[in-house]
Amino acid sequence: MSLYQLHERTAIVTGGSSGIGLACVELLLEAGARVAFCGRDAERLRRTEADLRERFPEARLLAQVCDVLDPAAVQAFAAASLAALGPAQVLVNNAGQGRVSTFADTSDAAWSDELHLKFFSVIHPVRAFMAQLQSQAGASIVCVNSLLASQPEPHMVATSAARAGLKNLVRSMAFEFAEHDIRVNGILIGLVESGQWRRRFEAREERELDWAQWTARLAQRKHIPLGRLGLPKEAAQAILFLASPLSAYTTGSHIDVSGGLSRHA
Question: How far is CA 197 from the centre of its chain?
Answer without folding.
Answer: 17
